C-alpha cells in the first residue's frame, strides 16, 4: 500500500495551484513564500514528479500538477467538512460541484476561481475534470462545462465563449522553421489533442488547403498536453484561442498565420439540469461566470 502524502505540503500545493501564485498561497496560509516553496518541493520529492514550472513571473502547473490539483482539491474540502462536523461545528457552507474538461479547468476556470470564493465565501466550489459527456443521473455534480452545440435533452445550457481555432508555436520554433503559408505545415510536426481529433482538419479546410495531411504528427490525451508540447517547441498545435490568450499576450506562443476559424455554435457551454437551474448557488456561480468572461 502506498503511503499518504504529507498534509502540510499538500495544503501548500493546493493553495498555490488554486491561486496560481506562491505569494498568494503564503498570504492565505499565513506563512512566508519561502515556506510554501519548501513545502511544494517536499511534495514533489515525495511524488517524484514536478508539479509546477518555475517561471520568471511566478509558477505554472505542469500537466501532472494540474491533474493532481483536480483530484486533491475536492478531497481537502471534504476533509475540512468532516473535521468540522466531528468537532461539533455547524457547517452550513454550500458545496457546488462543477465538472469541466481538464484543459478548460486548468487554463481558464481555476486561475479565476479565487475571485468567486472572495465574493461568495459561504460557497465552496469542487472542480472535477473529465472529457466524457455530462451525465447528471450517474454523477454527483451540480453543473458542468461541456464542449458541443449546446443542445442536450433535459439540460439548460448557456454559451460561454467563442471557440476559435488558431495554430500556435513557440517563438523559437517560429524562428527555426519557415511558416510563411499554411502549406508549409506539410513539413512540420502537427500537435493534436485526441479529445479533439478533427481540429486540424477543420482549420486546414477553412483555408482551402488539401495538401497537408491533417491527422499526422504527435497526439496527446488532452489539449492541455498539446499546448505544453507547443510551449516546449515540439511542433505546431491547433489551439482554442481563448485558452492560450495568456501565452499569446506574453509572447510564450505566437500565431504564425493570420487565419483563425470560428467554430460558431460548437463551443463551450455551462450546462445544468433544468430543475436545478434556479438554485441560489448556481445562479451566483453563473453570474460570476458572466462577469469573468467579460473581463
Largest sheet: 5 strands, mixed
Rounded radius of gyration (Å): 20 Å
Helical amount: 40-55%
How is the largest sheet built, in terms of strand order? 4-3-5-12-6
Question: Which ranges are low-confidence, i.e. pLDDT below 50, for 5 or more consecutive residues?
Answer: none
Helical stretch count? 10
SSE string, helices as H and strands as E: HHHEEHEHEEEEHEHEHEHEEH
Q: Which structural class matches the secondary elements?
A: alpha/beta
Give the CATH class of the domain at 93-161 and 264-295. Alpha Beta
How would you name the CATH homologous superfamily of the domain at 93-161 and 264-295?
Periplasmic binding protein-like II
Cα distance spanning the termini: 47 Å
Amino acid at each position: 500500500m502506498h503511503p499518504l502524502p504529507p498534509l502540510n505540503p499538500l495544503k501548500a500545493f493546493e493553495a498555490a495551484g488554486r491561486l496560481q501564485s506562491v505569494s498568494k498561497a503564503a498570504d492565505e496560509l499565513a506563512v512566508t513564500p519561502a515556506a510554501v516553496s519548501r513545502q511544494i518541493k517536499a511534495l514533489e520529492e515525495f511524488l517524484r514528479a514536478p508539479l509546477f514550472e518555475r517561471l520568471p513571473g511566478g509558477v505554472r502547473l505542469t500537466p501532472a500538477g494540474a491533474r493532481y490539483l483536480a483530484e486533491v482539491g475536492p478531497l481537502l474540502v471534504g476533509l475540512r467538512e468532516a473535521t468540522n462536523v466531528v468537532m461539533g461545528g455547524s457547517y452550513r457552507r454550500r458545496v457546488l460541484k462543477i465538472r469541466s474538461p481538464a484543459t478548460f479547468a486548468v487554463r481558464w476556470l481555476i486561475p479565476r476561481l479565487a475571485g468567486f470564493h472572495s465574493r461568495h465565501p459561504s460557497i465552496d466550489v469542487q472542480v472535477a475534470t473529465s472529457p466524457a459527456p455530462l451525465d447528471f443521473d450517474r454523477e454527483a455534480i451540480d453543473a458542468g462545462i461541456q464542449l458541443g452545440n449546446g443542445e442536450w435533452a433535459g439540460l439548460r445550457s448557456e454559451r460561454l465563449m467563442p471557440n476559435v481555432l488558431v495554430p500556435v508555436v513557440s517563438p523559437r520554433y517560429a524562428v527555426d522553421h519557415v511558416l510563411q503559408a499554411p502549406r508549409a505545415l506539410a513539413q512540420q510536426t502537427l500537435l493534436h489533442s485526441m479529445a479533439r481529433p478533427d481540429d486540424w482538419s477543420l482549420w486546414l479546410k477553412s483555408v482551402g488547403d488539401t495538401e497537408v495531411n491533417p491527422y499526422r504528427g504527435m497526439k496527446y490525451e488532452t489539449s492541455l498536453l498539446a499546448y505544453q508540447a507547443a510551449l516546449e517547441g515540439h511542433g505546431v498545435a491547433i489551439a482554442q484561442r481563448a485558452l492560450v490568450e495568456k501565452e499569446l499576450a506574453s509572447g510564450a506562443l505566437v500565431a504564425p498565420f493570420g487565419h483563425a476559424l470560428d467554430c460558431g455554435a460548437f463551443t463551450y457551454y455551462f450546462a445544468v439540469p433544468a430543475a436545478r437551474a434556479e438554485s441560489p448557488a448556481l445562479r451566483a456561480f453563473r453570474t460570476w461566470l458572466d462577469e469573468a468572461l467579460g473581463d
